[in-house]
Structure formats: C-alpha cells, structure tokens
C-alpha cells in the first residue's frame, strides 16, 4: 500500500518506514523545528537584511505572531498560497508562518509575470497571493488585481509594501504587527504533509508543481548542511532568489538555520553588493549560478573588499565550465563546491576531501547513502561507468510524482518509482557525476529553465507567424541562449517586436528569444516532429 494523497503520489508505505527507521525522516514539521532552534540558539543572530537583525527567538516569535494573523485572515491547513517575494527578511518570516499553519507556500520567482503566476494559481487552486508592491520597476499590485479578477478562488491578496488603495488588499506589514488571539482549534500539520510546492522546468507546455513534505525537505537541507560542515559560526549569503530550491535547501537558508548559523540577505545579485556584504558580515558560504562567476572574477580584480572570511563558494543550477572552475580557488581565495540537483529531489555535491580535479570537472555525488541512481540508455538498460546515459533516481527526498499531474507522472516516472530527470550524465567509478546535457525539450539559460513548448505556444500567436520552434544556442557565459526559428507569412518580426509581444502576454523576460531566425518550412523528423537538431545546425 502506498502513502498517497488525492493530488500527488507519495512513497510506498514500506519505503517510507525504512526512511524513518534510517533516520532520514525525523517526524518534525518546520514549525516544530523553528521552535526547537529558537530554544537552542535563542539569542544568536538568525537573519540579517540591511539594518534588520533577527535572533532565532525573534524569528520564531515573529513567525508565530504572523501565523496567528494569517489564521485570523482565513487561511487554514492545506490551503495553497502563491508567494512571489524578492529577497528580503519578510520572505523567511512569511514562509515559516505559513508552514507552521500547514498552509502550503507555492514558490513563484520574482521575475514571473501574469502567464506564469496565473498558471501557478490555477494549478494549485491557490486561495491567496503574496507579492511586493513594486519590484524591478514592475507593479505587482496591478498583477494581483488582474489575477484576482481572473480566479474567483483567489480570496486574499497580501502586499509587502504599500497597498496603493487597492480594495481588499491586505498589508503584510500590518499583519506582522497584528496581535491576534491564540488559535482556538489548532489543526497543525504533520511531518508527512506537503510543506511547499516548488516549480519545475518541464516539457509539457506549462511548469509542473513539485510537492515536498516536511520530512523529505528537512532531510535534503540537513544532509547538505552536514557535507558543507556548517555550524553556529556559518554565515550564508543569499544571492540567488530565495524561493529557488538551491537557495532554500542545498543547504541554503534551511540548512544554515538548522546548524545555528546566520542568513544574510542580498537584495540584488550584483558582485558589488555581494562583496560589500561578505566584508561587513564576515560571510563564510554563498551560492551562485555560472553566469555570476565571471562577474565575480572580474569584480575581484577591481575591488579591495576583504573576502578573507569566505570559505566555500557553491556553484550550481547549470553546468560550470572546467576553465572557470579552476580559477575560483586562486582568484577568489575560497574552496569551490560544485552542485548538481533538481527541485524534484536528488542533490549532488563535491566534498572537501575531493581532489581539485574532481571538484573542477564533476558536479559531485549524491548526498544520501539511500539515494538510488541509474544511468541508462534509450532502451532503459544501465550503461557502464564512464558512458553517457539518462539519469534516473529515487530516494528519501526525491518525489514520486508531481502535484495534480497524473498524465505527466505516467511518463516522468518509472513504474518502480524512479524519476526520469532528462539529464544526460556520465558516472565515474567514484560515484561522481559529470553533466553532459539534456534530453528534454528545455533550455537552461544560466540556471533559468525555459520550457520550449510553452514559449512556442506564445510565439505561434504572433500575427503572421505560421510555425515556431525555440532552441538553445550554446553560450559561453549562460550555457544556452534561447533562439526562435519562425515560419512567417510576410516580413518576419524583430527581436524587439517579439519581446514586446511576449511582455504584453505576461511572459517572463528570461524566456524571450535573444535571436530570431526564419526558415521557409520547419525541418521534420521521420515521424513528423520538428527536427530541432537540424535547426541547431543552422545556428
């Protein structure tokens, strides 16, 4: 018998019990963990955001007060809330307030717009949206109003900042100051409940939602923190977006807090900001994606900032070139850790004891002894060590299925529970993985996953476009850049025109094509599908 809910498949009961017996799952919710951390680390600094400095005791008390206010507002265990906040202390406080109630935060990226956020609300049947007033010159209040008009089940809108007079919008600042009465009939979550929903890149035309439980997500963060040798003296700089799985739990925010360390918020990802914060707060660990690495190396040649506290630089979300990897230790003066993982689960890290060659040329090995990894050919047979194949995996923190995606789950997972990652890897005898590429129709633009099918649907709606295909062009800095090939009736559109069209349709800017190519007709494979290999050959 499987541990299954109506909306998402869990682990088979006997497997789940084995994970508990092994100690991977410890039966604690994140609300319980935060209370425990507050008791153990109380006066230590947990969170720094500019002039805001919160101790563990203050973080626990503030999240507890906010959870009462959110309950008074009407949120209940099992509700889903789309959270679209940029990097700021309020994200952390809100996240713990929601999970303490058993309310499920749905992680939206700051750059998402109407198309993406609307899909998240529809797919999760969210009852609330939390966003900033304005961020990156974009008014999220207008977005929220449009979303609320579109989705009748979106009962609540909470704005971090000025509500701007929008009827019915609530201020997060006011909720944080509310002294609500204790909850009369508490209905707390259990550790096996869904704690959060992460966003996957994907190949089915729309992003998929990834259900993570308290048990499995805590395991993810804890094991990563142990490998990174975190402790009370660790200071983590959150440079990448905080809703990103990498920033949350690899080991990220959750891993640092469980170790008694300090999380420092970087409100923008620029190297100048990061270097200033590293020097001021004596940061010991941070995480970047590959596009930021050259910028950091360049900044190091121009900056006199004291980076001597920085011990570990994690790089993940996309393949880091070997050449850049070799420059990090001599030029930045810290150890590199390569990270290869996925929001669906499996996380691979290089280790402190690994040779410099392994650190610079591989993307690590699994963090848990019970992570099961297969590298298979197109027929599903395992390939010998050193040969390239698709990565399949299952384990104590890798999902067994997406949320409300029964059809996708039938093809995205094997009958015995292995997740088909779509990543092409080479496994060394040591167990380290070297990422070769992707087999899914997905473009990885510096860690931002672009579903080609989704964007093609928008491109096909452009006046005069008869057919559209999006492919990834190799790029030294970003890994891949999106290029659109179009079949047009009449004059083809410019990159600027396509960008304006997609922006008006609410498509995030990182998904916009960097180049436009035209063809008289799409090349087709033997089975009548667009031959994207042939299109890549035209680049």
TrEMBL record:
Keywords: Ligase. The keyword Ligase applies. Residues 37-403 form the AMP-dependent synthetase/ligase domain. Pfam families: AMP-binding, AMP-binding_C. Residues 454-529 form the AMP-binding enzyme C-terminal domain. InterPro entries: AMP-bd_C (IPR025110), AMP-bd_C_sf (IPR045851), AMP-binding_CS (IPR020845), AMP-dep_synth/lig_dom (IPR000873), ATP-dep_AMP-bd_enzyme (IPR050237). GO terms for molecular function: acid-thiol ligase activity. This is 2,3-dihydroxybenzoate-AMP ligase. It comes from Micromonospora marina.
């Amino acid at each position: 018998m499987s541990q299954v809910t109506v909306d998402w498949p869990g682990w088979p009961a006997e497997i789940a019990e084995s994970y508990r017996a092994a100690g991977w799952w410890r039966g604690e919710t994140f609300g319980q963990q935060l209370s425990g951390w507050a008791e153990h680390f109380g006066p230590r600094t947990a969170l720094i955001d500019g002039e805001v400095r919160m101790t563990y005791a203050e973080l626990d008390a503030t999240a507890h007060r906010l959870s009462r206010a959110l309950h008074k507002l009407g949120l209940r265990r099992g509700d889903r809330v789309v959270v679209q906040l940029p990097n700021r202390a309020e994200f952390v406080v809100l996240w713990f307030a929601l999970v303490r109630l058993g309310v499920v935060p749905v992680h939206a990226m700051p750059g998402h717009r109407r198309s993406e956020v609307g899909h998240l609300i529809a797919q999760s049947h969210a009852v609330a949206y939390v966003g900033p007033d304005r961020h990156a010159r974009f008014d999220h209040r207008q977005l929220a109003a449009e979303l609320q008009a579109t989705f009748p089940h979106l009962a609540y809108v909470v704005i971090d900042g000025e509500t701007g007079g929008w009827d019915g919008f609530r201020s997060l600042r006011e909720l944080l100051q509310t002294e609500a009465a204790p909850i009369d009939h508490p209905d707390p979550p259990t550790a096996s409940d869904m704690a959060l929903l992460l966003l996957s890149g994907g190949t089915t035309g729309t992003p998929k939602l990834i259900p993570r439980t308290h048990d499995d997500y805590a395991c993810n963060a804890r094991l990563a923190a142990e490998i990174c040798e975190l402790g009370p003296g660790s200071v983590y700089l959150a440079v990448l977006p905080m809703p990103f799985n990498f920033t949350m739990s690899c080991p990220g925010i959750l891993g640092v807090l469980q170790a008694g360390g300090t999380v420092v918020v970087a409100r923008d990802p620029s190297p100048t900001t990061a270097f200033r914060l590293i020097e001021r707060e004596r940061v010991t660990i941070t995480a970047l994606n590959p596009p930021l690495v050259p910028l950091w190396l360049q900044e190091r040649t121009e900056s006199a900032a004291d980076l001597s506290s920085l011990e570990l630089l994690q790089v993940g979300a996309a393949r880091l070139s070997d050449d850049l990897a070799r420059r990090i230790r001599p030029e930045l003066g810290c150890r590199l850790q390569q990270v290869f993982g996925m929001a669906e689960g499996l996380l691979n890290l290089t280790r402190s004891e690994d040779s410099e060659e392994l650190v610079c040329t591989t993307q690590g090995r699994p963090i848990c002894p019970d992570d099961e990894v297969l590298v298979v050919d197109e027929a599903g047979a395992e390939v010998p060590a050193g040969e390239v194949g698709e990565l399949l995996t299952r384990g104590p923190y890798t999902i067994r299925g997406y949320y409300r995606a029964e059809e996708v789950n039938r093809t995205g997972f094997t009958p015995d529970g292995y997740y088909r990652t779509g990543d092409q890897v080479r496994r060394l005898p040591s167990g380290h993985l070297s990422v070769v590429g992707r087999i899914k129709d997905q473009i990885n633009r510096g860690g931002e996953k672009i579903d080609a099918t989704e964007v093609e649907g928008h491109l096909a709606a452009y006046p005069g476009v008869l057919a559209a295909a999006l492919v990834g062009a190799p790029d030294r800095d970003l890994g891949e850049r999106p290029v659109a090939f179009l079949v047009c009736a009449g004059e083809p559109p410019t990159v600027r025109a396509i960008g304006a069209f997609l922006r008006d349709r609410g498509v995030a800017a990182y998904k916009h094509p960097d180049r436009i190519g035209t063809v008289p007709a799409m090349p087709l494979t033997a089975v009548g599908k667009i031959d994207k290999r042939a299109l890549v050959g035209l680049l």
